[in-house]
Write a structure and sequence with these properties.
With about 180 residues, this protein is α+β, with helices and mostly antiparallel strands. It has four helices and seven strands; from the N terminus they run E-H-E-H-E-E-H-E-H-E-E. The strands form two sheets. Strands 4-3-5-6-7 form a five-stranded mixed sheet, with helices on both faces. Strands 1-2 form a two-stranded antiparallel sheet.
Length: about 180
């Protein structure tokens, strides 16, 4: 897309330019658009707790046609100043045991949507929501980026399976990391 293109001028215009060949680099015009709208779970309730975020994951994200239970998915929930969810965005689909994401990819939807805050979420296909060292590292990097961008990182929630004695998620905010 960034190749140089030769622009051919009409004979009259070419005379004005003394038969100089003009080269122009093509650039892309970007359009940001809503993919589709889905009903929000919980109506106008705040999305400010990991329980609500995990339930949204199970009700809305895990039911999308692109969702594969055998792969990690990383998504962001975008929030307004009252912590009401305005939208969500899929950031990455990974492998069985990892989903690669860079802070620029995580914060891009928040910047484009003008979000005040966000909740980062991903699943563990194993069903065990305990964070890995990579999860801790990503959370630290996201917290630093959030501070710089002045976008509140409300939480990073890892979704697993509910079981006896396990809520089915891990919250970095509840653990005191954020």
């Amino acid at each position: 897309m960034n190749e140089l293109q030769v622009i051919t001028l009409p004979a009259k215009a070419a005379k004005q330019f003394d038969k100089v060949t003009i080269y122009a680099r093509l650039i892309r015009q970007i359009k940001v658009a809503t993919v589709k709208e889905i009903p929000a779970t919980g109506g106008s309730d705040k999305t400010d707790s990991p329980e609500i975020a995990a339930q949204f994951w199970r009700d809305s994200i895990a039911t999308q046609p692109w969702y594969d239970v055998q792969k990690e998915h990383l998504a962001v929930l975008l929030l307004d100043t009252k912590y009401k969810m305005t939208s969500f965005a899929l950031v990455s689909i990974g492998t069985l045991n990892e989903s690669i994401a860079h802070p620029r990819d995580v914060f891009r939807p928040a910047i484009v949507a003008g979000a005040f805050a966000l909740i980062v979420m991903h699943n563990h296909p194993s069903g065990e929501p305990s964070p890995s060292q990579a999860d801790h590292s990503l959370t630290r990097r996201l917290a630093e980026a959030a501070e710089l961008l002045q976008i509140k990182l409300l939480d990073h929630v890892i979704v697993g399976e509910k079981s006896t004695g396990c809520a089915g998620y891990f919250s970095f905010r509840e653990a005191g990391v954020l």
